[in-house]
Amino acid sequence: MHSLFKVNFNWSLYLGVIVFLRLLFPELTWFSYFAIVVSLHQFFLLFYSLGYILPIRYLLGSFMCLQMLVGPMLAYNGLDSYQRGFLRMQIPEEEYFAYVLPAVMAFIAGLHIKSGFLEGEMISQEKIQDYVKANQQVPYVLIGIGFVSSILSRFFGSELMFLFVLLGSFKFIGTFMIILGNQHLKPIFLVLVYGSVISSSLGEAMFHDLLTWVIFLGAVFAFKYKPTNITKGIFVTGFIALALLIQLIKGGYREATWTEGQEAGVNTLKKTVDESRENNTFFSLKKLGESNVRINQGFIITNIMTNIPARVPFAEGEELADIVEAAVMPRILAPNKLNAGDRNFFMKWSGMPIAQGTSMGLSSVGDAYINFGIGGGWIFMFVYGFFFSEVLKAFYRFSKTYPVLILFTSLVFYYPIRPDCELQTILGHVVKCSFVIFVMVQVWSSKFKMRLAT
Fold this sequence. Notes:
The chain is mainly α and about 450 residues long. It has helices at about 1-5, 10-25, 30-50, 55-75, 95-110, 125-135, 140-150, 160-170, 170-180, 185-205, 210-225, 230-260, 265-280, 285-290, 300-305, 320-330, 345-350, 365-400, 405-415, 425-454. The protein is globular and about 60 Å long.
C-alpha cells in the first residue's frame, strides 16, 4: 500500500483542507464528510503524481470517488431537489454510503495492495527517447493507422467497428511518443490529432473521449516538463472549468443538434452558450443540480438496492457470468451474448424504466451488489481493483523489453476509468485492447528488440 500513503504528498495541506471543510460545513453528516475525505485523498494523490508517472491507478480511484461519492454527496445535500422520479436517490444517505463507501475503499485497496512502486505507470523517458531515435517512423505510422482506422470504423458493424475505433486511438499513442521521444515539440501533429477529437466531439455532441485524452495529454506533458505545483494547479483549474462548462452546455447543444437539426460545430455551440446567457440559464444552482446526475451514478445504485432483493433476488453470480461472457467471447461463438447498452438487461436489475434508445450502465459497484449483496460486493470490488493492478503489472513486466508499452496503458484504461460504463464493456475493452496490443508486439517483436539494441 506504499502508493497510497508513502508518496510525494502534502499531508499538512490535505489535513488542513479536510478540517477546514468540517468547520465550514458542520451540518454535513459524517457519511457525507467521509465521502469527501476519501475523495480528496484520491484527488490529492492524482494531483501530486502528475509529473512523475502516467497515473492510471489514481485516475481510476479519483473517477470512482467522483461518481460514486462526490456526486451522491451533492445530491443528498441539496442538489437532489432538482431531480425527479428515478433520477433521485431512492434510499437514505446512511444506507447508501454504508455500502458504497467501503466498496469504493475496497476497490482502491485492490488497486494498490500489490502495486509496488506504481508498477505499470512509471515511464522511462530515456528509454523512450532511445526507442524513438532508433525507430523514427513508428510514431508517425501509429498516427497514420489512427486516422485511417477512424475513417474505416464508420463502415463496419459493431464487432469490427470496435477494432477500428481501438486502432483509431493509436494516433494518441503516436503523439505521446513524439512528445516524450523528441527534445523539441512538434505542434503540427498535436494540432492534427487533438483537432480531430475536438471535431468528432462537436459532431457527435459526445465529449468524454475529448476530456479523457486531454487528461492523458496533460499527464504526458507534466512528465516531460516537470511543472511546479502552482503551474499544475493553474492547468488543473482550467481543466475543471472546461469540464464544468461542457456539463452545463452539452444538454442544450445536444438538443440543438440532435432534436432541432442544427449543424454541429463551433457556431451552434456558441449560439447555445449565447442563448443560455440571454435566458439567464447558463449557470445557476438549478442548472448545476440538473447536471449533477451526469457525475452522480449513485442514483442507479439506489434503484438497484430498492429493486434487489425486494422484487428481484440476488443474481448469485449469474449476472456476472453473463457479463464475463459478453466481455471475452466473440459474438460468432456466443451469438446470444449481451449487447452493449442492453436496455432490457439494465431494466431487469435496476428496476428503472428507460426509453428506447437510452443507454445506462449498472456500474461495477451496482453489479457487485446485484451478484453478491453488501459484504460480497465489497470483496468483489477489491478483486476488481486488484485485477486492474495486475494488468498494469503485466505491462510493467513487458515494458522492460518494450519501454513504449507503458504509453499503451492509456489506451487500455481510457474507457475503464469511467465507472459509469457497463462492466461488460469495460472488461471487454481491457481484454480486447490488451489482445490487440499483444498481437502488435508479436508482429513487431523482432524489430522492437533489434532497434532497441542499436
